[in-house]
Request: fold
Amino acid sequence: MLETSGAHRSSGSKMKAAGAPASDAVSAVAAPDWDLVTVPSRQGLEAVDILRLRTGVGPVLHDSSGDTLGFLVPPGTADGWDLPGSACTETDGGGRRLAGDPPVAGTGWLVPPESSHPVTDPALLRQALGEAARTIEAADAL
Reply:
């Protein structure tokens, strides 16, 4: 599971981004502060596909066990996030540049940062996660 120890989900608490700023030798994308929406992998992978086909997706992390995905979303998203089956954690992204190493310890990039989508739009993510849940439910009913 994406490590968010010490952070309070869907609240004003903050999670400190892991790692030092990226090396200048690595192409980096300027990142605004961000919150992190964490979902089960199966639902997250469906949502990534939906977003890629429609509007685009911002950076997405996966944990080392493959159980969860984390979508970087704009700061303040955690204050109003209430989608069942997911959690949103306010972070201290500090405007650091995203590059080779992910900003959360124990994770890797599923979708690396791009300048065109520095974060995922939370309203579009909510829609995609809902559609993904319905798709999974329908597939499991077969």
